[in-house]
Amino acid sequence: MQQAHGKLLITGSSGQIGTELTGTLVERYGADRVIATDISKPGRKDCNTAALDVTEADSVKNIVKKEGVTTIVHLAAILSAKGEKTPDFAFDVNVNGMRNVLSAAAAVSGVKLFFPSTIGIFGADTPRDNVPIETITRPTTMYGITKLFCEQLGEYYFRRYGLDVRGLRLPGIVSYKTPPGGGTTDYSIEMLRAAAGGENYTCFLKKETMLPMMYMPDALGAIVKLLEAPSSALVHRTNFNVMAFSFCPSDLENEIRKINPGFSVSYAPDERQEIADTWPRSLDSSAAAREWGFSAKYTLSEMVRDMLMNLAPLPEK
Ligand code: AKB
Questions:
Q1: Which of 19, 53, 156, 288 is the right S-S partner for 178, CB 3.0 to 4.6 Å?
Q2: Do 43 and 162 share a domain, yes or no?
Q3: Per-residue pLDDT tens for 170-221?
């Protein structure tokens, strides 16, 4: 178990990443140090829990102060597809939530804050391949616009108040424990779930839509590594690119077919195609590797095998 001082507060802990990251942090720092929060009080029993609406500035400030929080993992956010359906709500949660968390963190000395940004901060004018950290960032979704703002507001709090803010741009994250909610890369999990359940799948993106992705164990490893990196090692702060591999829906379909030859996918792109068309195919993650040792272990085929095994027993060979 790692030594951590004070409490570690997680917002959005009931989401796809939050559910698993909370377990990882409880193992690492101990149950009594972790407070898992979400808009409704999380049902988990392995740590302290509380209901917390990040859009309520006083509630955020109070819990940070009252509990002696020294690390905040701010996951509460509205993702790309849902954000296009409810742009005002996405603005409120993503922008006001981030401001409230930053301001609560800055009001107490020595607090460290982690939040995930996204490949959604890029836009149609961004080069598509091996995208560097510094490039054209003109997102067209509410999710992308608000997350780019979060990156820049985080940098502002670092420069102006010395707040130890850290963030990375996550690609699509594939996992089996908790379904994602409202993302564009969710098709990959839906496809794997359908295959594991013995069903065929209708994909909402075109078969050739290539996007950067990562398997959950590598995402958890990356978040913990960035969280624990010495502050002095960080040249960048809130905008590290990270990815494991790129694939398009037909690559995933073919990979599933190697295990489950009867599986088939039909393609019926919807409005989420427009979002995916503005995102890059691959990212340059070298700054993350250099500054805090980012690496991803799983390949696409290892991930597919592990997903199918965990979602349903694999067919006999
Ligand atoms: C989404 O699809 O909105 C997210 C993301 C790539 O940030 N998974």
A1: 19
A2: yes
A3: 999 999 999 988 999 999 999 999 999 999 999 999 999 999 999 999 999 9
In sequence order, the 6+-apart residues with CB closer than 8 A to the CB of 285 are: 240, 241, 242, 243, 294
Structure tokens belonging to residue 193: 């779930």
CB 196 within 8 A of CB 308: yes
Residues 29 and 167 in one domain: yes
Residue 274 Cα to ligand 1 midpoint, Å, equals 13
Q: Is 143 a catalytic residue?
A: yes
Q: Is 172 in the pocket of ligand 1 (CB under 6 A)?
A: yes
Q: Is the CB of 97 under 6 A from ligand 1?
A: no
Q: What's the domain range around 99?
A: 7-171+216-241
Q: Does residue 159 contact residue 118 with C-beta atoms inside 8 Å?
A: no
β-strands 211-215, 245-247 pairing: antiparallel
Beta bridge mates, 7 = 69
Residues 182 and 164 both lie in one domain: no
- Which of 141, 186, 282 is the best mutation target for the ligand 1 pocket, counting ligand atoms within 8 Å of the beta carbon and taking the most? 186
Distance of CA 301 to the CA centre of its chain: 21
- The torsion angles phi and psi of 264, rounded to 5 degrees, stand at -140, 155
